[in-house]
């Protein structure tokens, strides 16, 4: 197994969990079965991140665009999400994981919202790691929503245009209070962001792998982290400066 330096871990890892459908096709099973298999990878990656000491893990589970998939698939994904939240709550408590969510949470079904709110509430004091689920999430929607809320606060006299800085703007995003992702992983051989964390990934390191999400387990994550640790993050400076 690849070795990683525990003193140079990414603080925040974000993952675009892609390729469940192609995994299903290769294995001649339904797309829904592919998503079910993908939820096993979610468990494995959450556990691995917690074990090695990652502080924030953001998982892109459902995009705003994904609502346009066939209704049966959307329903199955929501069902899997609900099942995951119910079955993992105890494990999150035992391993000190705090659940958070970003996206248009109000747009989720009543059933999902209920279990999600409960899990967020019950784990709110946990300090070991934040598991942040991007649900009904869209990066552009997030920026538009932030702008609307800034205008609202401006109309209410709580903020003026001079107050607005990058930091204040960030506070109006869904990810308020969270550090930007250091490492963003996308599985399944696609090289795009698909509307994920547009603002937050300004200086994120990207890692792309052909592995399909249901096959992406702990040892593949370690490989991604090892790759990240071999990079030099310059943030616009010269190599000598950074
Ligand atoms: C990712 O797998 C899961 C979600 C987008 C919810 P896909 O369902 O996108 O899998 P592919 O891209 O069709 O293989
Ligand atoms: C991105 O995957 C969204 C999630 C993984 C939840 P998609 O499969 O929806 O992205 P595109 O359509 O290939 O860009
Ligand atoms: Mg896909």
Written description of the protein model:
This protein has 242 residues and is α/β, with parallel strands linked by helices. It has a single domain, classed as Decaprenyl diphosphate synthase-like (Undecaprenyl pyrophosphate synthetase). The protein has seven helices and six strands, in the order E-H-H-E-H-E-H-E-H-H-E-E-H. It has helices at residues 20-26, 31-52, 71-94, 110-122, 139-155, 166-171, 218-229, and strands spanning 12-16, 56-63, 97-102, 129-137, 183-186, 205-208. It has a six-stranded parallel β-sheet, with helices on both faces. Helix 4 (110-122) links the parallel strand 3 (97-102) and strand 4 (129-137). Helix 1 (20-26) packs across helix 2 (31-52), helix 2 (31-52) runs parallel beside helix 3 and helix 3 packs parallel to helix 4 (110-122). The two termini are 30 Å apart. It binds 3-methylbut-3-enyl trihydrogen diphosphate (2 copies) and magnesium ion (MG). One 3-methylbut-3-enyl trihydrogen diphosphate is lined by residues 17-22, 62, 66, 77, 188, 213.
Question: What keyword list fits this structure?
Answer:
242 residues; alpha/beta; 6-stranded parallel sheet; globular; binds 3-methylbut-3-enyl trihydrogen diphosphate; binds magnesium ion
């Amino acid at each position: 197994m690849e070795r990683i330096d525990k003193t140079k871990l990414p603080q925040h890892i974000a993952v675009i969990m892609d390729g469940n459908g192609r995994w299903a096709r290769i294995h001649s099973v339904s797309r829904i079965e592919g998503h079910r298999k993908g939820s096993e990878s979610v468990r494995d990656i959450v556990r691995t991140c917690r074990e090695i000491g990652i502080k924030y893990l953001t998982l892109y589970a459902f995009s705003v665009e994904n609502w346009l998939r066939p209704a049966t698939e959307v329903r199955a994904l929501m069902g899997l999400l609900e099942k995951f939240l119910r079955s993992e709550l105890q494990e999150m408590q035992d391993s000190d994981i705090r659940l958070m969510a970003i996206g248009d949470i109000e747009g989720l079904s009543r059933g999902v919202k209920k279990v999600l709110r409960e899990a967020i509430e019950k784990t709110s004091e946990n300090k070991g790691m934040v598991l942040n689920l991007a649900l009904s999430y869209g990066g552009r929607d997030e920026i538009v929503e932030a702008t609307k809320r800034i205008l609202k606060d401006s109309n209410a006299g709580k903020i003026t245009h001079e107050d607005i800085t990058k930091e204040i703007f960030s506070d109006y995003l869904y990810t308020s209070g969270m550090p930007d992702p250091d490492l963003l992983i996308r599985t399944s051989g696609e090289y795009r962001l698909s509307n994920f964390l547009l603002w937050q990934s300004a200086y994120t390191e990207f890692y792309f792998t052909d592995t399909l999400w249901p096959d992406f387990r702990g040892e593949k994550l370690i490989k991604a982290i090892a790759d990240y640790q071999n990079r030099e993050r310059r943030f616009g400076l010269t190599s000598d400066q950074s």
